[in-house]
Amino acid sequence: MTSRALREAFHREFMTFFERAERTRRWNVFTDIAWNRLAGSAQMADPRLVRCAETFCGVEMYLPDYLRAHLDLMRGDYGRAWFAANWGYEEAKHSLALREYLRRTGARDDGELHDYAETVLARSWRAPYGDGRRMTIYGAIQELTTFVIYRKQRRWAERLGDPVLPEIYRLIGRDEMAHARFYLRMVGLHWLMTRTAPAPTSRSCSAPSGCPQRTCCPTTRTESRSCAPPASTAGSSWPRSCCRCCER
Fold first, then answer.
1. What is the pTM of this model?
2. pLDDT tens-digit profile of 139-176?
3. What is the dihedral of CA 209, 214, 218, 223, to 10 degrees?
4. N or C terminus of the chain: which is more exposed, having fewer CB within 10 Å?
5. Which of 183, 173, 182, 172 is nearest to 92 (CA)?
């Protein structure tokens, strides 16, 4: 269970995140993508782009499992629980946009898309960790990785001349980066609270032999200092120095 001070800090971060999303980042699957370009294009969708779009659509379809894992861990934390609800709404648009691309290009028909959804959802995704802190770090890494993948797909679709897929990936990638930056802020708050907590009195490390944590285990006050971020990045703003490459 996180402290009240940490939960209040999470809530403040969520309100900042949400205000910015409402003001600068909301988009509509049906009106903010130039689907009419498909009607004026004699070019068939490239099968390679179609396969990738279908794959990413399938990954995004595990949203019910992702949300359940979030809410099971964060239900008692207002800021992070409400972030999970907002995150779910934004992630839902990602799979819907990719699904619409597959349908509107004629690459897949409705029956094939329903069959695909049933195949995907016949399996479930399980969270790799059972606590909020590690899942927050995991979320930050996943969102950053997803952003990089979508950016590469966007550039590939541009080179191949697809009329709408680059914009779809741009919108999705912008969301993913916003999510990653929020998670990084949460990691930073966890870190700061850990640094300001009383130093442990035990001098024994419970990490197993060979575990990287043994080299930075806060077994003494001196060793604890080695875990702090560099002076140039110390303080509550340190994660904000990361990943400013997707402001648009």
1. 0.76
2. 999 999 999 999 999 999 999 999 999 999 999 999 99
3. 130
4. C
5. 172
User: What's the CA gap between 182 and 159, in Å, rounded?
Assistant: 31
Residue 237 amino acid letter: S
Which candidate, 93, 96, 101, 115, places its Cα nearest to that of 46?
A: 101
Determine the Cα angle at 122 with ends 110 and 125, to 5°: 115
Tokens describing residue 77: 């934390």
Structure tokens at 201: 């009195």
Amino acid at 222: T
- CA atoms of 161 and 154, how far apart (whole Å): 11
The DSSP letter of residue 171 is H
Would you say 229 and 191 are in contact if contact means Cβ atoms under 8 Å apart? yes
Closest by CA position to 6, among listed 209, 196, 207: 196
Residues in contact with 121: Cβ distance below 8 Å, sequence separation at least 6, in sequence order: 61, 62, 64
* Tally of CB atoms within 10 A around 145: 12
CA angle 180, 183, 184 (to 5 degrees): 85
Domain 4-196: assigned CATH number: 1.10.620.20
Pseudo-torsion of CA 32, 35, 40, 43, nearest 10°? 120
